[in-house]
Specification:
With about 140 residues, the protein is an alpha+beta fold. Helices cover about 30% and strands about 30% of the residues.
Length: about 140
Amino acid sequence: MILSDKWFTAISQNEDNTITYISGRSDIEAWIQQGKMKERIEVTWHYEKDEQGLPANDKEAQIMEAVQDRLQAAMEKDKLAILTGVYTGQGKRDMVFICRNNKAFGERLNEALAGLPELPITIYAELDPENEEYKSLLEIKGEDD
């Protein structure tokens, strides 16, 4: 089975009149139906925000992108985890992965980020055997996309 790299994007207006950019992975239903990706891991990068809630510093935004690319490549090389969604707004970027094993994810995350300075990230993990967060993300996509 081949992992597609198709994404959809949306913009959400928040209650505080800021915006959040949402990117969601398309065409991964077959991976979910296997039932092996039962854990959800969220890597959250906290950044200095501008008046719209987006990164105020272009250099930090570029580093965030590079770290996201590094994590995605490390986790998806053998399908330990799949990046399913990215939410950027309100002073944070949430990178959401579905995962087979959160202990292995943590080890690989440390390997992938080795040599980088300390990053302003937090990590949250929870069991999500029905992939409810991803299903909610697909509702944003809508049926026409």
